[in-house]
Amino acid sequence: MSGHPENLIIRAGGSPLNLPEFAVIRDEINKTSHPSQPEVNWPLVESLSLTVFKTNGVDLQTAIYYTLARMQLNGLAGFTEGCELLAGVIVSEWDTLWPPQPQVRTDLLEWFHSRTGSVLRQMDFAANDLRMIYRAERALQLIIDRLQQSDLKRLPRVENLLWFFQNAAKKLEKPRQAPKPASQPVQMPPLVYLSQSEAEPEAPPPPPPPRHEPKSTADNQQRVRVQFPEEPPKGLSAWQGFGLGAMLGLLVLVGSWLLFYKPLQQQLNVMTEQPAGARLAWLYEPTLDTYATQLERLAETSPLTTWEAARALTETAEQHWPASPVQQQATRQWQQQVTARIDSVPLKGGWDTTRDQLQQLADKILLQERTRGSFTLSYLKTAIYDIQRSHGSDVPLEELLR
């Protein structure tokens, strides 16, 4: 690839199946299982994998092919770089990583374990390989931890690679512990692999022994820098969300009480101060404690309460809407109704008429008794009938209240 691949920034991507570069990579990888064992163009696989990363993003299958190519070209160092790339993808983008099928992911990682394991077991490691071994251990440990937290029904045997490197590190550490009783703590590099000039500016490491790592060319020194999208800002915890929701709910309740409930309560208090309003409120919600109080207030109510209330209504309406035709018509109709009721009431009620008729009959009976006169039965029946009719024409208020 042209340019500076060590400065290439890649991202997690989707399916590469429709890319021509991926088709070429897959054809080259299929040669590893061909019976005739044709030669695989590993530099081409590495170069095309970087192209896929740049154009489509990182996926699990292409990252595995890239790791295998790096290992074939650069031995332990290439395998370590590829493992760090896989660790970054699996840890950061497992939920959205392609392919999404759990079984396919398991098969790919099993294939990765078998292919790389057979090559690694043919390598011979020296003491100066410990740094790369530690990095490979770290990357494999991250991959295993994330796989154990996933939804895979069957975990791939990536742990075998971790055990292999742990045993190799123990064998290489024993000869070094004798002359150095107090070894320096191992500085673990970051997960993202940097170029040789960036990662180790003070002194480049000695070249690997030619017996287990092929000689790398200029094209094989490509480095990849992985950059994933930043995680979204952490949201509120459950308790913080609950507290914020409770506070907002309290503010809504207080605002509703001030805007709606309190004015309505004030209006209700004003209405219940009047006898009619208090009676309606008691009928809506009867209480035995206020029953006697309601009766006492009704007993103290003047018969003119309705008249006074109507007069107050008409005066208020005339003050607020003096020129309104609606107000004038309603007031006029009320005055006409009051006048008609007054005119329909007789000057004397039925009780007065009955009293006069009884007095007249009593006077006639006394007069006939003095003159030794008499009354016919028909006359008495007629007089009593007239008195009863007058008496029943108007029921006194006292009788209604009895």
Task: List the defining traits of the structure above.
402 residues; mainly alpha; 4 domains; two-stranded parallel sheet; 2 strands; 63% helix; 1% strand
Structure description:
This protein has 15 helices and 2 strands. Strands 1-2 form a two-stranded parallel ribbon. The chain has 4 domains: 5-226, no CATH class; 267-296, no CATH class; 302-345; 350-401, no CATH class. The protein has helices at 20-30, 42-55, 60-93, 102-120, 130-148, 159-177, 196-199, 238-272, 275-284, 291-299, 305-320, 325-344, 350-370, 377-392, 397-401, and strands at 9-10, 225-226. It is mainly alpha-helical. Residues 291-402 form the ImpA C-terminal domain. The chain crosses the membrane at residues 238-261. InterPro entries: ImpA_C, ImpA_N. Pfam families: ImpA_N, VasL.
Give the helix proportion (percent range): 55-70%
How many angstroms separate the termini? 115 Å
Radius of gyration: 54 Å
User: What's the count of strands?
Assistant: 2
Summarize the biggest pleated sheet.
Answer: 2 strands, parallel
Low-confidence stretches: 1-6, 191-207, 209-221
Give, in spatial order, the strands making up the sheet with the most strands: 1-2
**Any idea how many domains?**
4
Global outline: rod-shaped
The assigned structural class equals: mainly alpha
Write the H/E string, N to C.
EHHHHHHHEHHHHHHHH
The residue-averaged pLDDT reads: 79
The number of distinct helices, counting runs of at least 4 residues, comes to 15
How much of the residues is beta strand, in percent? under 5%
Domain ImpA N-terminal: 14-112
Domain ImpA C-terminal: 291-402
InterPro entries: ImpA_C, ImpA_N
Region (Disordered): 196-220
